[in-house]
Structure formats: C-alpha cells, structure tokens
Amino acid sequence: MSIDFASRLIGMVVFAFVGARLGVTISSSLELNDLAVSFIFGLVGVLFGLVLTPWLTVRPIRLVRRIVNELSIDVLFMTLIGTIIGAFLALLISFPLSTLLPPVGGIMPTLVLVIVIYLMATAFYVRAREIWVFFEEWFGWKPRRGGGLGGEERLLLLDTSVLIDGRIVEIAQSGFIGGTLIAPRFVISELHRVADSTDSQRRNRGRRGLSKLNELQREVNVPFKIIEDDPEETPAVDDKLIVLALRMNAVIVTIDYPLNQVAAAQGATVLNINELANAVRSAYIPGESFAIRVIQDGTEANQGVGYLEDGTMVIIKDGRNFMDRTIYVEVTKLINRPTGRIIFAEPTNGNE
Length: 352
Known about the structure:
By secondary structure, the protein is of the alpha/beta class. It is 56% helix and 16% strand. The strands form two sheets. Strands 6-10-11-9-8-7 form a six-stranded mixed sheet. A five-stranded parallel sheet has the order 3-2-1-4-5, with helices on both faces. The radius of gyration is 30 Å and the shape is flat.
C-alpha cells in the first residue's frame, strides 16, 4: 500500500467524521433533519479526504524533504543562522509592541516575528556563498581545498547532461576528479523538469540524473556541493552555466558537444566525459581482429553494426549477412571524434 493511498483512507475517515459533526451542528441551528444533513456533510467529507488529503499531508512533507535533501550543508547552515538571528531581532522588536493597547498589542508581535524571521532566513539563504566568503576574509578562515593545483580549489560545474549520463559518479569515486563538484540550483531544477516530463524516455532520463545527484551527495569521499548562484540575466540553462563558470573561474563538466564548443569559444574551460572515455578505451588498430555481435543494419548497402562493451560503434562491411550472429572482424579504419569513437571493420575469412 502506497503512502498516498494510506493517507487518502485516513483522510476519508477523519473528514467524514468532521463533516458529520459539522452537519449535526448546522442542522440544529437551521432546524433541519440531523441525520440527513450529517449524512450529506459526511459524504462531502469523504470526497474531500480522498482528493485533498495527500496535498495537505504527504506531498508537502515530500517537498520539504526534497528541498532539505538538495540543500548544500553551507546553505542549510546559513539559513539556520539567519532564522536564529531573525528570531532574536524579532523578539527585541516585539517586546515594546506587546505593551500597546489591544488588538494591536496582540497582533503586531506575532506579525513582526513572522516577517523578520522570514526576511533574515531568506537573506542568509540567498547570500550564503557571499557570507561564507566574508567570514573567511574577516576571520581568516581557510576554506577546505578540493585538491587543485598550487593549493587553489578547483571548481567543477556539472551540467544536466553529465548527471543524466551518470559516469561522473564512478570517475569521482575513483579519485581522479581533482576538485570540488558543484551542481547549480538551476541545473537541478532543469533535471526536475525533465523528470516530470510526459514523455517516458525523458522522464526516465531525468530520474536517472536525480538518482546520480543523490549518489554524489551521499559519497563522503567526493567533495560536492549545491550552490544557489543563478545568473538571472540569461534565461537558457547552458548560457547560465557558461556565465557562472566565467564568474567563478570554474570548469564545466559535460558530455554535450554543442555546449563544449560554445563554452570554449567564450573562454570557459570544459571537460568532456566522452573525450576522457575515448582516451581510456582499448585502442584497436587496423589489422587487429576481435569478436562482435551484429545487431542492426548500417546506413550503406549490406552494412552491419555492432557495439563494443564500452559503447563504441563498429560498422562492418557486408555485415548484414551475419545479422544476429557473433563473428570475427578485422579493423580497417578508426575514427576518433569528440562525440565518440567509430571503428570500421570487415568480416574475417574464418566466419562460416
């Protein structure tokens, strides 16, 4: 039984009881039939409980949990500090207000408390990164370094495509990342939009990206944080990422080739996971042979296509004759591109 369904059942019972009691009260004041009115109000309560209970209980809790889970520890800590400072200031202001004549003296302290706490918590939430920098400069704190060269922290901005791809998690766990991974809030928001898509394929891609994001958050040996910085002057996510990389002197990590080209043209440093994958793949040179399964037709006549375990496409001359079979092929040509590696081959004489 899902939590939503259980909440609907509980809400149905609770609101049916509340509706019935309300019906009895109203029927007494209007001199109507108690049983009929309470029954009608009870049915309305059942409907209300079935439809609205998850929106009043489970889903707000999930929303708060998601927000807290996605907040970086420095932003969360600063928000709590802002809340505490706001409560302290509000209490100082509310004390003289409480001495005023009713009803002002009873309403104003509570109103001031809510407004001041909200303003201070929001200010510390939005400006958390600048406040940390101020504390570091004012008190001489030294920020934790991410393993960059020359003692400087290397910042690595993750885009949507690299989180959906997921290989960044294994690369970071291997210890080769050499810096702090950073996920901007607008990138996470884009992932949520993809995960909420009506298209099943896009929805699965978005959920995979959010799953990989959670893995990075739980990995204690990987420096990772979420930042709230959002260049509002640029609407597109890719443009925001480039602007932010230039402001922070950070590196963009992506598998998006167009973003790679545009960012490099604007002077931003880019790390493309596909280029890294090409660099560490086993190299086949012309004349070498290996076994591969032909799984589909190629674009040219009689061509067949297969894939190596690392995803490298192998285009096989006359491979269509060996469809759905594992054969030995000999490499004739190798092409390396930023988007991936392509191997051209032809069947060896030993295939039956």
